[in-house]
Amino acid sequence: MLVSKNIKPAIWENKTGKVKVRIVAGISEQEKYGPSGGWYIFGNNRLILGPDHTDKTGWGAKKPIRIPEYHPQFYRFRGFVFLNAEDPRDLPWNTSKTNMDLDSPVYRTVLQQMIVMMRTVIDFLNGLHDESNSFEKGLIKSTPLQKSIDDSTSFELSTVITTKKYVSKDLFLFPEPAKRIAPNKPKPIWLRFEISSKESELIQEYFDNDDLSEIGREIFDYFAMREIGTK
Amino acid sequence: MSQDIEKLPSFKVFDYRIRTNKNTERKMLADAFRRVSGFESVEKYRYIGFGSVTFTDFVLFHKSLNITDMISIESKEEYETRFDFNKPYDCIKMKYGNSNDVLPELGWNQKTITWLDYDGRLTDFVLQDVALLSAKSISGSLIIVTVNAQGYQSPKGEKSYPKIEKFFLKKFSEQLVREVPTWVKGVDLQGDEMANTCRRIIYDEIKASLRDRNGMAAADDVLEFEPLFNFVYSDNARMLTAGGILYKHNESSILRKCEFDALDFIQKDLYEIKIPVITPRERHFLNQQLPKGALNKLKDIGLTDDEIKNYSRSYRYSPSYAEIELS
Prior knowledge:
The structure holds 2 protein chains of 2 kinds.
Chain A: E1 2-3, E2 10-14, E3 19-27, E4 38-43, E5 46-52, E6 77-85, H1 105-136, H2 144-150, E7 153-154, H3 157-162, E8 168-169, H4 197-207, H5 212-228
Parallel strand pairs in A: 2-8, 4-6
Antiparallel strand pairs in A: 1-7, 2-3, 3-6, 4-5
Chain B: H1 2-7, H2 20-33, E1 46-49, H3 56-65, E2 69-74, H4 80-86, E3 92-96, H5 99-102, E4 112-121, H6 124-136, E5 142-148, H7 161-176, H8 193-213, E6 223-234, E7 238-248, H9 252-258, E8 271-272, H10 280-289, H11 305-314
Parallel strand pairs in B: 1-2, 1-4, 2-3, 4-5, 6-8
Antiparallel strand pairs in B: 5-7, 6-7
Helix pairs in contact in B: 2-3, 6-8
């Protein structure tokens, strides 16, 4: 997983119940077809599910918050869930131990937490995508999100989990995106219509003005003043 | 015309500082917030709200409760300069973006009062915020939501109830942008019932989110939700403010000690905030009998029983004139 001064995977732990849970969510290298992206769920250190891109692990979720479907923008996403129980029967897996039991109260809690945690990673990856577009269009001067990736180091998951300074409690940590150079002014809307040359002559004469764009504005203002009023 | 007005940010249309019922509601909430001290003194709480340009709620809660950790969520990013300029205190942090995006990015390790005071109606967007707050807010935190809950009106001339009901349910499903719960009938969307319906949907969402969250909690740690605020009022549209407090199962004695229900506006049924329009002379006359005077035996000064009742239960909070808070 990638870690830097301002990128830290989110970690969440619950050791109070029969099932001990640890969830880690962050990013890794970009792969061409994204085969390793997604969630991995381990039960007593055995991989039960993953890499998973389905609603079983929150992709396309609607509750408690919306999560998009897995797609290339999220290839960097890596999430790991470690469930450990003294009695394996307490683990939220199905009877053949090959998949998650989606109705288990334990898994419902875990999944709710996974969804909230993946959201910040997805926000970062969406931001990264927007950043590269905005930079190409000259709307921003710097690319702090890309830079945070360039400055990051790839660590083994086991190192990340055991090193306190490499992780961030509950929330994936990432830098503030760059501010747009020009403030987002509301976009002007263009109104066009066709008139005949006869009509154009008449109104040019009426307004004593040759500039049709100015005349167009006058016509609109005249209408707006009478029919809409000042706001 | 009215549609054009709806497109403008509401702060450009209404001055929220001087809407009497809203003003009263805000002060009632502040009075209730003081009572969280059994969980933690209120000044240590964080407040999250929609401050808009006037930050009226922020000013009140900072001044009267000394809350200093405050976050204002603002979706109208194009007015960023104006919001930043109008921010009344340094302790308010601005977070730009819509609440669906901003709330998941916040940390939730501290007790928080979140008041999402929307202008619009109850929608899936609102319910997602509600679900997230319920999934993340810690014990002792308050979750409060205000939405427009104006009842639907039957289409003009339509007399067939089945057709009207079908129309209402379709409209409500389009409003919510999600499936309408099966218990909702046409009559639940008319008049004052709309507020009851929206309130139940909000509380159901909180409970569903808590159910997921509590999946692995020990019995004592199970988080529960106690509804406190069930306000309705009409400054223009009919508004509903619904909300309450999260507490752990083994903290019910702390909750009891807070004595929220000693405030008479905290009740299980909808509570109408309705400040009567009365003259200063009438006000002074009524004040002299309050709080415990025999209001039912007053000499007749021409006010209705309803006006007197509404005044007597809100006089501690109602502005005595159109109050402009120059902060």
